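Below is one such protein, fold included:
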Amino acid sequence: MKHRESRPGQKSAGGLGAKPRRDMPGKPPAKPAHASRPAKPSPRHGERVTEPRDAATASAAPERPLIARTGERPTERVPVILESLGAGDFHLIDSGNALKLEQYGPYRIVRPEAQALWPPSLAAHVWDNADAIFTGDTDEDGMGRWRFPREALGETWPLQLLGVDFLGRFTAFRHVGVFPEQIVHWAWMKEQVEAAKRPLKVLNLFGYTGVASLVAAAAGAEVTHVDASKKAIGWARENQALGRMEKLPIRWICEDAMKFILREERRGNKYDIILTDPPKFGRGPNGEVWHLFEHLPLMLDICREILSPKALGLVLTAYSIRASFYSIHELMRETMRGAGGVVESGELVIREAGLDGRTPGRALSTSLFSRWVPK
């Protein structure tokens, strides 16, 4: 084939709504729409202040100092562009004029995309034939509503990715329950789990609707899924039931992510693969505040401490932040000093695939990432 569509986060229908709504036409506008800046940081997914994907945040003040790391930094591989053309029930049809046209199962969907600075490739009538169009605030996590030009659609519909069934959902923050750019990390994780000659433990922090957790568990891993949003955890359990995967070894933990990993560190619990997709800003269930640039160094430091001696990877994605991938790349290399291995960093991109899902077009950048692997 997004995460986060990191990627984006929210509380099901409520939220930040500070700016006036601006409806978007079904066909691409003549001029690109420029996303305005939010008055204050806004969430992406989990329970970050406002919707199911804004969750799993961190404490306002560090609960322990950073560990002074010694030894050589891991070797580096940069820049790395991890690209997906489409997978399962998803592909990017076209993009342009600050919009993207996507296929999610049976539905053709139009959503804002500030990075699509170019004109669309396909004719206006293709865009006009969309089943659902997000209208409202053009900020990345601005509130809005869905317009259904052809016929009213239900809130949810079934989708499949990497052999896992899950529910798509039209949320008030434009997101639909999966960030498809993340498929490259999930496919990598699936390969690691299936190829291992031993049982693996996977930790999925800021796990959102659980698609990655289900992929890992279906491949044979024992999974711990952490998200601070009760709605996100509920959605994840719905996805598990949809795929009849209730017997898979998954712990669903509704808790602040930093509190959870600090406790795991104290208990000496270890994981072979850690996935983390934190928001740029958020609040936990008890008012804990998370600021990416303030709290990310400590979060990664703790994650290193709970990696097993034979760990296979630590994966970080960062969505919708004003930074270069080099910022998280160098942080990851400092965090993993003395651990050996390789840190590879760059961007996740989705390539347009046309109406047929197989015709490569332009690449749309979605997230920054950094990944440590032992070799």
Q: What stands out?
A: DSSP finds seven helices and 17 strands in the chain. Helices lie at 124-128, 183-195, 211-219, 230-242, 257-267, 292-305, 325-335. The first helix runs from residue 124 to 128.
